[in-house]
């Protein structure tokens, strides 16, 4: 064979081999990077957050897991990532510096095929830029996802304030601030058998709680009519068909003669089926007491004399 031809053939073969290796590493053997870290995570006292990603090779690949290297570049600094228990999943624990509420980062993955020669340079895949935000105000979950009108339900989270109000769609509820991590509300007198969207608003950023279904429940009132003198007291008993939920059940009572009636709030204690309150006569007048429940509205006549 001619020496020049032999030299040319050798260089062509080497070039072809190099091109094949390049195609093998960057073309058919690509990795898919899937960030498994939420964009927003709840704050924690240690300010340490786990950033997790899956680096999945293409179908039927022969990438050598032992020769794969994953790094994260976060806030401009490069850190090695560690393998998690799950296949192809890597993680890194990052402590957010004091006073910071966010961080930007991206992933770099280097990999080689199982039969790659020692001098072959690894292929490299880089993810897009991502952002991690620390939420100081958030909702974890409501205590329940359904309840009757008047039931007291807690909402757990963080960053709550005394200005917060829980809304059923556009209807505000009677909301109780318990702590920065807990609110409670009484289910308002809305139509039963429907689901409503809950949100927390008023103390800062509006927080979405989720869907809440209102169930129907009725109650009875005894006696079914009242006549008393000014200053006199009479007992009024409210009975519900099943024990009140945790937090009790608030019964909405109104009247068209407010100056004639003095009575406390009606709250059936948790676990109880009835409550008795003392109603006192005020100025003389004649009207009604009105009651709202998820089963409908009712009333009893009321007369106050001198």
What is the CATH architecture descriptor of the largest domain? Sandwich
The arrangement of helices and strands along the chain is HEEEEEEEEEEEEEEEEEEEEEEEEEEEE
Q: Which structural class should the secondary elements be placed in?
A: mainly beta
Report the principal-axis shape.
rod-shaped
> How is the CATH topology of the largest domain named?
Immunoglobulin-like
> How many structural domains are formed by the residues?
3
CATH superfamily of the largest domain: Immunoglobulins
Describe the structure.
The chain has one helix spanning 3-28; strands at 31-35, 40-42, 48-57, 69-74, 77-80, 82-83, 89-95, 102-111, 123-126, 130-135, 138-142, 146-148, 152-158, 165-168, 171-172, 174-179, 182-186, 194-201, 207-215, 220-222, 226-229, 233-239, 249-255, 261-262, 266-268, 274-281, 285-293, 296-305. The protein is mainly beta. The protein has three domains: 17-135, Immunoglobulin-like (Sandwich), CATH 2.60.40.10; 138-215, Sandwich (Immunoglobulin-like); 220-305, Immunoglobulin-like (Sandwich), CATH 2.60.40.10. The radius of gyration is 34 Å and the shape is rod-shaped. It starts with a helix and ends with a strand. Residues 1-29 have low confidence and may be disordered.
Give a quick set of tags describing it.
8% helix, Immunoglobulin-like, 306 residues, 5-stranded mixed beta sheet, mainly beta, 1 helix, disordered N terminus, 6-stranded mixed beta sheet, 3 domains
């Amino acid at each position: 064979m001619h020496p020049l031809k032999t030299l040319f053939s050798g260089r062509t073969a080497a070039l072809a081999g190099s091109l094949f290796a390049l195609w093998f590493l960057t073309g058919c053997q690509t990795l898919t990077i899937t960030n498994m870290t939420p964009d927003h995570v709840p704050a924690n006292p240690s300010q340490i957050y786990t950033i997790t990603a899956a680096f999945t090779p293409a179908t039927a690949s022969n990438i050598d897991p032992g020769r794969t290297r994953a790094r994260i570049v976060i806030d401009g600094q490069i850190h090695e990532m560690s393998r998690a228990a799950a296949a192809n999943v890597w993680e890194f624990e990052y402590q957010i510096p004091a006073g910071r509420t966010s961080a930007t980062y991206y992933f770099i993955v280097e990999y080689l095929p199982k039969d790659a020669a020692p001098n072959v340079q690894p292929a490299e895949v880089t993810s897009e830029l991502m952002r991690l935000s620390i939420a100081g105000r958030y909702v974890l979950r409501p205590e329940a996802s359904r309840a009757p009108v008047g039931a007291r339900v807690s909402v757990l989270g963080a960053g709550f304030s005394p200005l917060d109000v829980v809304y059923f769609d556009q209807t505000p509820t009677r909301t109780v601030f318990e702590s920065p991590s807990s609110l409670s509300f009484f289910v308002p007198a809305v139509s039963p058998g429907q689901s409503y969207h809950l949100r927390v608003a008023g103390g800062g950023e509006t927080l979405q709680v989720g869907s809440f279904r209102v169930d129907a429940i009725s109650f009875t009132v005894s006696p079914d009519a009242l006549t008393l003198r000014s200053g006199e007291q009479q007992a009024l008993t409210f009975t519900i068909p099943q024990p009140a939920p945790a937090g009790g059940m608030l019964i909405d009572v109104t009247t068209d003669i407010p100056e004639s009636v003095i009575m406390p709030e009606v709250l059936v204690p948790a676990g109880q089926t009835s409550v008795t309150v003392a109603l006192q006569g005020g100025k003389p007048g004649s009207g009604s007491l009105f009651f709202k429940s998820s089963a409908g509205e009712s009333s009893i006549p009321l007369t106050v004399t001198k």
